[in-house]
Design brief:
Layout: H1 2-5, H2 9-25, H3 29-45, H4 49-63, H5 70-84, H6 94-108, H7 112-128, H8 132-149, H9 152-168, H10 172-189, H11 194-207, H12 211-225, H13 232-240, H14 243-254, H15 256-266, H16 292-295, H17 299-309, H18 314-321, H19 325-339, H20 344-348, H21 355-365, H22 372-383, H23 386-389, H24 401-409, E1 418-419, H25 424-433, E2 443-444, H26 452-465, E3 475-478, H27 481-489, E4 493-497, H28 504-508, E5 514-516, H29 522-546
Parallel strand pairs: 1-2, 3-4, 4-5
Helix pairs in contact: 2-3, 3-4, 3-5, 4-5, 5-6, 6-7, 7-8, 7-9, 8-9, 8-19, 9-10, 10-11, 11-12, 11-13, 12-14, 12-15, 14-15, 17-19, 18-19, 21-22, 24-29, 26-27
């Protein structure tokens, strides 16, 4: 690890390869896991994506077989670091699961140092995804732990991570102070993170209008990296900070020749020379007004809001999303802040709606115009990660659902359609994941901001286009009041099931046709449908007999 820390990746990889072979010979799974995640990190720094993915895949398989320990918790973090690769703001969805597992284990083992470390990584992930409220919350909790521990190393990591919030808020002076303190400690440690810090400094100097010094610091960073390929970490920071754009702007401002001269001059700089960089007088940072980009609900917050509408408790939401309870708490604080509310009840007034309605209401609560194209972009942002996110959830198909659908599929006198407040893309992702899509030839989805009754009406019209439908023999199966109201709007009979966020008692109060705690077995369900059809036929016959 020392060789890796000092940037001697070739030697570090050779040593880890030898360690892995030895651990495998000894059948030491924990040791093999440590070697694998270190090899993944090293190959990531070497921009060897094929090897990184191979080591990560083996580590992911091995880690699930090990008992909970600090080694396992730390390995999860190392796996996330390896995943960063060259795209710091596009971590794969399993990264969130790994970080939450690491946090859960460290808390269970009462390891505050490990908890603080994983909180920093969770904050960084939120920061890269633009969820600044969640990032600040995680940083605050990490800082409290770090102050109690008195850990200088973690305090330095906190400062380096938190300066990105300083930059976003325009507090460049504070960000520079954090960097300068870290530079000296980095040199004392002899680690290889200096180039990344210099790229951050170059970005700050550019924002402060110090173009000459920005060009010089870029040159200094390149000199430290040497003539070889940029490390994965430095490349990721370069992408995140838009260093390519900064270079282009500096060339335009200074001229190509002057930029080249300053860049070369920077390659001769030493650390002490950075102390001579002037500190321009800047106005104190002012809190920015809310904007669509700053106050948008993230895709994960939208998912939390939907579960909140089902009146799930925080632990239940955590279980559904495969995250820790503290992560859910942080998401809820962020949601309340963005929506300008102070309680679950107030937030639920926004939730419990279709995907499009949630988006529209969010815009309105932020004082923004819910322009159709913008709302659709927000909904698409929710849809896009679902196919890769769903495999990380601990969801299951509820009892008797698949068996009933299989039985109905075999009957020529029954057609099953989907009626949902999800968008078509969202519903398709979920049903495909749970292998239920084949049972539904089509369906009605949330296509605009209309309520559930409009979705139900479209579903009935769709069914009628496919063949004759007797209105009295239409059944809607659902687990929320919205499903009951939608069924009532089209004159259908509701079979309500208390498997969602509403109890049997709450559903009964809305007078559905039948209510169950869970769907009955297929044979009983079919008998129920036949009984409903018979009742409908009797009503129809009675009405016909009264006619002249």
């Amino acid at each position: 690890m020392l060789a890796r820390f000092q940037g001697d990746f070739a030697r570090a990889r050779m040593l880890c390869d030898q360690s892995l072979k030895l651990y495998r010979t000894l059948a030491d799974k924990a040791g093999a896991l440590i070697a694998l995640v270190q090899l993944a990190r090293i190959s990531s720094f070497q921009v060897d994506q094929t090897s990184t993915e191979s080591f990560l895949a083996e580590a992911a398989s091995l880690i699930e077989t090990l008992p909970e320990s600090v080694v396992k918790a730390d390995a999860y973090i190392d796996m996330v670091i390896s995943m960063t690769g060259t795209s710091i703001n596009q971590l794969p969805p399993e990264a969130a699961h790994y970080l939450d597992e690491s946090e859960r284990i460290h808390r269970a083992l009462n390891n505050p140092t490990g908890v603080a470390f994983v909180l920093l990584h969770q904050a960084n992930r939120a920061l890269w995804e633009g969820d600044y409220t969640l990032a600040a919350s995680r940083f605050d909790e990490a800082e409290r732990l770090i102050m109690e521990l008195g850990d200088d190393h973690l305090h330095t990591r906190l400062a380096m991570s938190r300066l990105q919030l300083d930059i976003r808020e325009g507090d460049f002076a504070t960000a520079r102070r954090r960097l300068e303190n870290d530079f000296q400690q980095a040199v004392n440690r002899g680690d290889h993170h200096m180039p990344s810090g210099l790229l951050i400094l170059a970005s700050i100097l550019h924002k402060q209008g110090l173009e000459v010094w920005s060009a010089r610091v870029l040159g200094m960073a390149e000199a430290l990296m040497g003539t070889g390929q940029m490390s994965a970490e430095a490349a990721a920071f370069a992408q995140f900070l838009r260093i390519g754009d900064i270079r282009a702007e500096l060339r335009a401002q200074l001229g190509d020749e002057a930029f080249a001269d300053e860049f070369v001059a920077g390659q001769q700089l030493r650390l002490d020379d950075l102390r001579t960089i002037p500190h321009p007088q800047m106005p104190a940072p002012v809190a920015k007004a809310s904007s669509a980009s700053a106050t948008f609900l993230t895709a994960r917050e939208i998912e939390v809001l939907r579960l909140l509408a089902q009146e799930l408790s925080n632990p239940q939401i955590a279980e559904k999303l495969v995250v820790s309870r503290r992560t859910v708490d942080a998401h809820l604080r962020s949601i309340y802040d963005k929506l300008g509310v102070k309680s679950r009840d107030a937030a639920i007034r926004v939730a419990g709606l279709t995907d499009y309605q949630i988006a529209v209401q969010t815009f309105r609560m932020l004082g923004l115009d819910p322009e159709d194209s913008t709302v659709r972009r927000m909904v698409r942002r929710y849809e896009e990660p679902l196919p890769s996110f769903l495999p990380l959830k601990r969801g299951t198909v509820l009892p008797n659902v698949r068996e009933i659908l299989e039985h109905l599929e075999s009957r020529s006198d029954v057609r099953s359609y989907l009626l949902t407040g999800n968008t078509r893309g969202g519903a398709q992702a979920k049903l495909t994941h749970y292998r239920l899509m084949q049972f539904f030839p089509d369906g009605a989805f949330a296509e605009d901001a209309g309520d559930r009754s409009t979705v139900a009406t479209r579903a009935l019209e769709l069914a009628k286009r496919s063949g004759p439908v007797f209105d009295e023999a239409v059944f809607v199966i659902g687990d929320t009041p919205h499903d009951i109201h939608g069924a009532n709007a089209i004159g259908a009979r509701t079979i309500a099931v208390g498997t969602g966020g509403y109890t049997v008692e709450e559903l009964t109060a809305l007078h559905p046709w039948r209510v169950f705690s869970e769907l009955p077995p297929p044979s009983e369900f079919i008998q129920l449908i036949e009984r409903g059809r018979a009742e409908a036929a009797a009503v129809t016959a009675s009405g016909a007999g009264d006619r002249p």
